[in-house]
């Protein structure tokens, strides 16, 4: 029996693959583009598109447990037929499922709740890896971060801890029907985050605090659409309590302390140096 990972070329999925391999589990990885997957040796890479169920024939055959994303496409739209996907999964006899929770609101979770399968929803707060995506270029070239809400608190979580929880839940079972909020070990402000990153990089990163309107203008100039701009204003300006409340779930599930942002920054410092 094998373990299927969707989103396997993404930030979290790639690490779910690594964690399962490290635990000695056979892994099948789904991608729309196997030629560019760049996954480790030993992984069975299969082609398929979660938005087209007819492309998934055989993908779940012989699968004991599956890690699912709940979106399709590079703009993170909800899966067009989550219920159809769940039907494929249950008909193939998959016993356990983890779902990486996110913004996409489709019918996947509802269908899983009604299905005869042990499933677990993982609800991570802000990923530490966003730092790489959003800040590496500007820190490299300008040494400055321009953002609003300098005192905003976040309990940001290391993406490897999300993956470690997923791999443990998939391999061990016994977590069916649970929703796990996943955070790092501390809540830090944006200013503190920049100071930690500066120390790791070995170079001062300046912080320029923008007003909300200045931030809107900057994000539009960066090419973001109105919907994303307003999502960011809401998410960053009025972070829900869960986003800055530390919970012990990573340690409870994996037996390891959640990784800190200082650890993340030390691992990735090179990506922020010119
Ligand atoms: N960033 C955060 O702070 C944060 C916080 C909480 C939750 N989340 C949630 O985390 C999720 C994003 O995870 P991530 O950052 O690991 O993803 P990511 O790095 O953006 O990678 C996207 C993955 O989705 C796959 N994919 C996209 N469309 C597909 C399709 N139609 N069929 C099959 N595979 C498809 C891609 O695979 P291929 O291109 O190889 O096909 C790729 O592996 C979202 O649901 C988001 O809401 C993010």
TrEMBL record:
According to the entry, every stretch annotated as the NmrA-like domain falls at 2-97
Question: SUPFAM superfamilies in the record, alphabetically?
Answer: NAD(P)-binding Rossmann-fold domains
From the UniProt annotation, give the residues forming the signal peptide.
none
| UniProt cross-references to InterPro entries, sorted A to Z | Ergot_Alk_Oxidoreductase (IPR051604), NAD(P)-bd_dom_sf (IPR036291), NmrA-like (IPR008030)
Pfam short name (any one): NmrA
**Designated name of the protein:** Nucleotide-diphosphate-sugar epimerase
Give the species: Planobispora longispora
Biological classification of the source: Bacteria, Bacillati, Actinomycetota, Actinomycetes, Streptosporangiales
């Amino acid at each position: 029996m094998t373990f299927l990972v969707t989103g396997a070329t993404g930030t979290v999925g790639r690490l779910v693959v690594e964690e399962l391999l490290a635990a000695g589990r056979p892994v099948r990885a789904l991608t729309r583009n196997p030629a560019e997957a760049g996954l480790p040796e030993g992984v069975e890479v299969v082609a398929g598109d979660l938005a087209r169920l007819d492309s998934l024939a055989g993908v779940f055959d012989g699968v004991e447990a599956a890690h699912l994303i709940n979106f399709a496409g590079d703009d993170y739209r909800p899966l067009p037929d989550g219920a159809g996907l769940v039907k494929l999964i249950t008909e193939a006899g998959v016993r356990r499922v983890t779902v990486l929770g996110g913004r996409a609101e489709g019918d996947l979770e509802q269908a899983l709740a009604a299905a005869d399968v042990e499933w677990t929803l993982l609800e991570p707060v802000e990923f530490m890896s966003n730092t790489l995506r959003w800040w590496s270029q500007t820190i490299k070239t300008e040494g400055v971060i321009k953002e609003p809400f300098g005192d905003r608190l976040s309990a940001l979580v290391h993406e490897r801890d999300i993956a470690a929880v997923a791999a443990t839940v998939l391999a061990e079972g016994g977590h069916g029907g649970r929703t796990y909020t996943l955070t790092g070990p501390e809540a830090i402000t944006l200013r503190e985050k920049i100071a930690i990153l500066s120390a790791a990089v070995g170079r001062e990163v300046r912080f320029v605090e923008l007003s909300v309107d200045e931030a809107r203008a900057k994000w539009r100039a960066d090419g973001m659409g109105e919907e994303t701009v307003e999502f960011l204003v809401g998410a960053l300006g009025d972070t829900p309590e869960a986003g800055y409340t530390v919970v012990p779930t990573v340690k409870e599930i994996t037996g390891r302390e959640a990784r800190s942002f200082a650890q993340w920054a030390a691992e990735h410092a090179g990506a922020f140096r010119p």
